Each structure stands twice: as structure tokens, then as C-alpha cells.
Amino acid sequence: MISLAALSVAYADGRRALDDLDLSIAPGERVALIGPSGAGKTTLLRVIGASLRPTTGAVRLDGVDPWSLSGRQLKGLRARIGKMHQAPPIPPRQRVITAVLAGRLGQWPLWRAVASLVYPLDIAGARAVLEPLGLAERLFDRCDQLSGGQLQRVALARLFYQQPEIVLADEPVSALDPALARSVAVALNEDAKRRGVTLIASLHAVDLALSEFSRVIGLREGRIVFDRPAAQVLTADIDALYAGAPHAGAHDTPDQRVPSARPRLTRCA
Amino acid sequence: MRPVMPRRRLMLTALVLTAVAASVWRLDLISAFAEGQDSLGELLGFLQRFAAPDTSPAFLAKVGQGAIETLAISLIGTLLAVLGGVALALPASGRFGRLSQIVSRFILNLLRSVPELVWATLTVLAAGLGPFAGTLALALHTTGVLGRLYAEALENAPPAPEAALRGAGSGAAAAFLYGTLPAVAPQWVAYGLYRWEMNIRMAAILGFVGAGGLGAQLYYALSLFHEAQAATLIVAMLLLSLAVDALSGWLRRRLVVA
Amino acid sequence: MSVSQHDPAARGRATALVVAVCVLWPLLQVAQFDLAVLFDTGNLATLGGFLGTFLPPATDADFLGYLASATLDTLAIATIGIALAMLIAVPLALLSTRSLSIGRLDGRLRPVSEAIRVLARALTLVLRGVPELVWALVFVRIFGLGPAAGVAALAITYGGMLAKVYSEILESSDLSPTRALLAAGSGRLVALGYGLLPVASDELVSYTVYRWECAVRASVVMGFVGAGGLGQLMDQSMKMLNGGEACSILITFLLLVMAADALSAWLRRQVR
Prior knowledge:
heterotrimer; A: alpha/beta; 6-stranded mixed β-sheet; 9 strands; 33% helix; B: MetI-like fold; 83% helix; translocase (chain A); ATP binding (chain A); ABC_transporter-like_CS (chain A); ATP-binding (chain A)
């Protein structure tokens, strides 16, 4: 159970990313967050993911305030929350197997993490999550040899490998072409349904939100505009949500720096 | 094209020429080289003896031994510096707070500013004459150089992968190993190889202050006016550094570019 | 199944590890790697006693006089060394620069000029291939102890380095004015003066000034083998285990290097 009460997040200059929000999400719900750019979707996901502390108000995950926990307990809590990002946060030179196994770093002791860098400790487990995504063949390839869509599916495999109780996905498909976007959205929902876990995803593609998720929340300027089962969302709701707002265009993906092969000359070489 | 500033350029040129003239006067070089007039013949004879390197098998065997020692000094010294550089770059990039950042940067600057040869005079005191002193001297100076470069690489690495792992409950060390290390490791290796190429040349020299290797033999040969042996040793130094360049280039292609 | 159940990289990693151990272990022996030596009480006492005398730094008037004089010597060695290096580098660079070759232009092979170019490049390689410290040691045998050896050593190695970089800068500059001049029948020197130099001069000057900064450091280090200046003074103090003097010299060296950095940065800003 996720519950937020009178929750606000303010920037240093006083503007509010989230403004007096009340929300509760039951286990097993599959929620789509939609709304124009700057509506506060990312901020909301970060608050639920125990990555960002709200300025005022309360956040409770299974009745627990994450910010009252010790550092060790907070790590344990985060290990139970899976996160997906628009740009897969995977180092380009890492191998697929390592990138997938990194999903359980929160559950592994350090010795296991180090040993797995020398020789991957759970090849079968990584293969099992890559297989349904059509990437089992690429298990030992390096991530910089994959296409953008394949890389996003590796990130998905990492998430499935983590087996989290709550899945938070921030624009997981907006960098993908429509067919691929749908397949990733479907995979996220199938996994959540099968394991009965909570899924919250922010989306720009309204059609995917309506067709794949069980509940849709419209967010604008840090407030909830509507919050209904997906089947009951009206065209008028959507029009009102995006009215006057510039529709999200191209998203800038963070650049992945490729290390230069030859270091620049140091002094007096 | 940029506008030309003739007056300013003229003044700068005059300044530089004055500095050169003052330097010549200061060192009294004209008389120094003039006195060297009579040593011109000596110089020619010296060069003549240089032109016939000593290639007797016994001496070549000794040179080979010195070359291996020089190689060992450069390689072990560079590897120690890589370890030390990593150990100091982590705090110097600000991962463990402001205080440790200031302290580790100060240490790196100190290590880097003191030339290898000065370190060698100190390590000879600490470890006695021999190759180990040279290894330590190289390691100390190179730690300063590499630590700074490594810290820069850390600061420039994309933060997202490590942050994502931390957000998924990973510990700090594991998140670094899986999130940031893959991004910086190729640069770290490239810098290390590049310094190795410089250190093989330096290792050949450190023997001048008693730190082993080809340098010690060259110092000895020149002190006793054995020019033929000195010539062999200089050629050996050149060949050794070219060989290390090639090896390091091969490793760079295997580890960094691939 | 087409992908194996085992990590295909494992064998390569294991091999690399075995090779590394097989190479490093004997090299550790050769380098006489032994950390215990560092904790030998006798050595610790010597080093500790020496380092203990670093404070306070020597400040008596006689010594400060020597120090100032040695600092001036070091600066003078670097300055003349670079000036002579330029005299060596300019002709070498011109001879080895492809873009100033007329043969390139019309495609006809000129074996003589090609041979000269190869020779010039080989000479450049030899000059900078041998470290300046080795040259310094050789020249000390010829000119005796003192600055002359340092100047000669700097002139030769830095001559080689400058020649290489000069020719690289010239070749990477915009060549169209030069080509036009050469095509119109100008000589190589005219083409250089009116075609290449206006384009490349800033970079050439800037690199030379930067090298001067390096020469200051190098001339200190060369002093250790008797080539005059601060290094020679430091070598003497260290051999006599006079920590106070060594400390003063070291501080002077660090300040000098910082000052040279600043001066060279200022000069390079002026030409930009």
C-alpha cells in the first residue's frame, strides 16, 4: 500500500513541483501517470521511490515512513522497489549479463557483487529474464553493441531480475518507436499482473495508458486533475489535461560519453 | 584574421630577446664555449669513440640484465602508482566529503610536484641503493600524476548509472563497481599505459642517483670514460623504450579501444 | 542452445591472469620488491633524521645568496636552451614538412628531396629519443660541470621535440594559401613566409612558450648530474644530508615552477 497525504515538494525558489497531493495506491494496481511536461510526474515517482524527500506532508510505503528509517533499513526498502528510466542507466561498456545481474545488488552482500564481476554468478537467472524479451543470444555481448530498443529491454530484464514489489517506471518507452513502446509497456504490465505487484509508470503515450493500465492519473502543475479506472477516462479529460500546454516533443537523452582512446598529453611529456 | 597589434608584439619580442641576451651574459656562455674551443678536438674524439659501441657478448649480457631491471622498475612502479592513484582519486573526486577531498588533493599535488629524481634521492635513503628505490620513486611521482587524472575521469563520468543502482538499494561500493567503474576503467588503463611509456624512459635514468637499472651502468661507464659501453647502453635505452611503446600500444588496442 | 552456459570471456581472463602472474612475479624479484626494507630501523632512522632536519628551512644570508644565484642560472639555462633548440628545430622542421614540398604538388617524384626529408625525420627522432638527462651526463664529460652541459642537452632534446611538433603544426594548418603560392612558382621559403606562417604562427609561438615552462623543470632535474643551477645545489645538499637546505631548495623549486607556469600562461594569452 502506497499512501501520500498533503504532500508537497518545493524548489529552492519556492515554486512547487508537487502541490498538496493526496493519493493512495493498493497492491497490484497498475497506474499510468499522464500529463504535460513539467506536471510533476518524475518528482512524484522519485518521492514514491524513496529517492526524494518531500518538503511537507507524509509518504507511507506499507505504513512505513521511509525517511524515519536508518540508512541500512532504507537500503533494504529501496531494494524492494524497481525503477526504470527513459535512458537506460547502463554503462555502455558493460556486458549484458553484468547489467542484468546488477538488478540484485541491493540484495547481494558485497563479496557476491565483487565475485560476480570476476565470473557471473547467476548465468541461468539472467538468461531466464532475457529469454522472453528475445535477448538471450546477446547475454555475453557488450551493451554498446545493442540498439536503443535492445538496451531498454536489457534495463527491463534487470528490473525483472530484481523482482521488486513495486515497479516505478519514468517515461520507460518515450525514446522508443511505437511498436517497441507497446511491447515494453505490455511486458511491464504482464510481469506486474503475473506477480501481483504494484506498477506505476509515467507516459506520454495516452493510448498506451488507456489500453494497458488499470488506473490512470492525470497530473498538471503538481496537482491531480483526474484519477479514474482506465475504462472510465473520457476524451474530455484528456483534452482538458493537455489544453494550452505544449505537447511533449523530442526528449533529450543524456549523452553517453565514449572514453577517448588516446589520453591527451599531460604536462611536459 | 585577427587584428594585428604590432606595437604590443614588438614589445614582447624585445622582452624575449632581452631575456635571452641576459641569460647568455649571466651564464658567461660565450667564454664557456670559447674555452671549450680546445676541447673541440676532445669532443670529436669522444664522439668517435662513441661511434663504435661495445658489442662483446659478456657486456651485452650485462646490458640485457640491466634492461630487464629497468623494465621491472618501470612496470612495478607504474602498477603501484595505478593502485595508489585509484586510492587517492576516490577521495580526491569528492566521494568521501570535502575534508578528505582537500587532504587527498594536497597529497596528490605534493607527490606530483616533486620530480622523480628528487624522490629517488629520498627513497635511496629509505630502501638502500638498488632497483627497489627506483621503483618507489617512480611510484610516488606517478601516483600524483595518475591520481589527478583518475579523479578528473571520475568527476566527468556520467552519474546516472551509479545513482540508479543506489536508488535500487545497492551499497555504495557495489554501485560504484557496477555503475561508474565500467565508464572510467578504460580511461584509467589508457592513462596508466601512457605513463608506463614515460616511466620506462625515466627508469633508465634513475640509476644516476643509485636507483638501479641501465642508468646505473651508464653513469658508471661515463664516469670511467668507457664511451663504447656508454654508446651500447644508450642504444639499449632507445630500443627498450621503443619496445615498451609497441607493447603498450598493443595493450591499448586490446583493452581500451576494443 | 546457441549461447553457452558458461561465460565465454572466462578463459581469456584466466589466461591473462596466469600470464600477468608469470610476468610480474619474476619482475617483482628483479625489482627487489620488499616492503620490509622500508621498516628496517636503520633505514628509518637515516630517513627520519634527514627529514627531521627539513624544518626549519635554511635561511642564512650566504645560503640564500647561493640559492638566488642558482635560481637565476636555472632560468637562464632554460631560456638559452630553448632559444638554441629553436635554431635547431626550425631548419629540421622545414626540411621534414611535407606540405612545403614542391614534389607533392605536381605529383612528380623527387628522390633527393624525399631522401632529405627522411634523413631530417630520422635525426629528429634520435635527438628526442635519448632523454635530456642522458645528454646532460654526456655533455658534463665534455664541457665539465656547469650550465654549459645543461644548455647543450636542452638544445638537443628540445630541438628534436620542437622540430617534430613544428612540422606537425605546419602540416595540420590550412594549406590553401601555401599551395597557391607553390603552384604560382614561389620558392619554399616564400611559400612558408607568406602562406604558412601567418596561419600557424600563433600555435608555433604558443607551443614554444609552453616548452620553455617544461625546460625550467628539466634544467632543475639536469642539475642532479652536474649541469648547474638549482638541481646541482639540491644534489649537493641532499648528498650531505643537509635537510634545511634541501627544504629551502625544494620550496624554491616549487615556487619557480608555479611562477614559470603563470608567466608562460600569460605569454600565451598575449599571442592569442
